Fold this protein.
Amino acid sequence: MTRPLRFGICVDQNLGWEKTVERWRRFEELGFDSVWDCDHWVQPSRPQGPYFEAWTLLAALAAKTERVRIGVLVSSNTFRHPAWLAKMAATVDHVSGGRLELGLGAGWYRPEHEMLGIDLPEPKDLVGRFEEAVQVVDLLLRQDVTGFSGRHYRLREAAFRPGPVQQPRPPLTIGAHGPRMLGICARWADSWNSFGSPEEIRARNSILDEHCARIGRDPGTVVRSLYYWTARAEQDCWSSLDAFHDLVGRYREAGIEEFVIDLPREDQESVLERVAAEALPALRAARR
């Protein structure tokens, strides 16, 4: 399945409100497909700095933007009961007029869990809890009344009204790196998001394909999405137009169809404008 390439910006919520609105509107104006914030109590790369909460900020920004798709990359399942998250997602989908991309993840950053006294289970239990949470979110967003009986979550005739604007539900983006998490993607994700080298992404892509084949799902129905974590990357893709093209070229060969990239620094505004005006239209056209 061939889809147009998609390009998004990930914005840490460490700026003031007015500046954050300005930046999100700027990315929308430049023609990016999506803008995302992050679900952390503190910023992992700068834990002593300021940081707004992801979903309340997203709801406010939904009312301040008009076209761009919006989301949290990705919501930590350890922070909220999945039924509450589904209710929050439906609310933001209404505020945004049906522009929500619903990002889901198991949770990973141990320091913020420790400072808040929130349990971060070992991987086996963490992934098991997450798999149930994805099912709960999926069911609630699709139907008026839901029952669910799992090891970690139980719902009894849980009413869910109003439903989301997008039908049958907002698309699910699941962040995953390991084989078990990729198996969850194969069953429920509309998009799979990961970060890593092109070689790591290519290997995970193959595992996801295998999981899809095992359950009879067309692998082409899962969008392959990259989060480009600039702080951990070998190359700053905002350093030049050539650097941006190089990034896209290397990861396209690994199977990536959507690029969600950390926002550039303000002194890289000229590169951002050239990327938006020259690179994005050319890359989208070449994909058709």
Remarks:
- The chain is about 45% helix and 20% strand.
